[in-house]
User: Which sequence fits this backbone?
């Protein structure tokens, strides 16, 4: 049983590491990507090329981006099961359920890529991921702070709050300051990347804690 729990914990290291590394590589490979003028989803936009035409930079970026999302979301689910085994109250359990749905939404982004067959589902999956990732941190952290370590719980909650606040700040800047750079409502690569890093970083931190101590702080 202990070996199974430890194996499930390793998924919490692998999933975010692969997802974040492939995301970074995709931003470097895509010849059209710009942090100032694109969203991350634009990297995974259909380009009319054959799926495995990796000899072209834009298709390689397409595969890295969408493949990393699908892999990270699916491989992260076993870690959600491991986290569930650590819960001791209903609020924590609710947080883990939301985290699992956020991971499914992350997978959905990769499947429902822009201009693909399931394009209509792309925005719901993308918005759902960022919203649910925030809710998962807030809910799980609240349950944790109430019955166990206030420090771990509050750090988790504050990561969710920072994620939300950086989106608010970015939207306000786009609407009120950066008004001369074209379509200001599509330039979300920076807050998307920050959100992914915060969520992935929390998963890695939590998984490392479980591997080191065998359980989360009491």
Assistant:
């Amino acid at each position: 049983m202990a070996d199974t729990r430890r194996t499930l914990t390793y998924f919490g290291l692998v999933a975010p590491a692969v997802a974040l590394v492939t995301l970074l590589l995709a931003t470097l490979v895509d010849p059209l990507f710009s942090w100032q003028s694109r969203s991350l989803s634009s990297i995974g936009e259909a380009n009319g090329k054959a799926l495995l035409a990796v000899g072209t930079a834009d298709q390689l970026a397409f595969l890295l981006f969408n493949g990393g999302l699908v892999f990270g979301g699916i491989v992260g689910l076993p870690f959600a099961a491991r986290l569930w085994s650590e819960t001791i109250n209903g609020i924590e359990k609710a947080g883990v359920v939301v985290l699992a749905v956020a991971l499914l939404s992350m997978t959905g982004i990769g499947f429902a890529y822009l201009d693909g067959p399931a394009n209509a589902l792309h925005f719901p999956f993308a918005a759902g991921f960022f919203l649910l990732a925030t809710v998962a941190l807030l809910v799980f952290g609240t349950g944790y702070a109430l019955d166990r370590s206030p420090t771990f719980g509050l750090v988790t909650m504050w990561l969710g709050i920072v994620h939300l606040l950086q989106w608010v700040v970015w939207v306000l800047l786009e609407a009120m300051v950066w008004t001369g750079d074209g379509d200001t409502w599509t330039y979300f690569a920076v807050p998307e990347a920050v959100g992914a890093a915060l969520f992935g970083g929390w998963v890695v931190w939590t998984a490392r804690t479980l591997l080191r101590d065998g359980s989360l702080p009491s």
Notes: The chain has a mean pLDDT of 91.
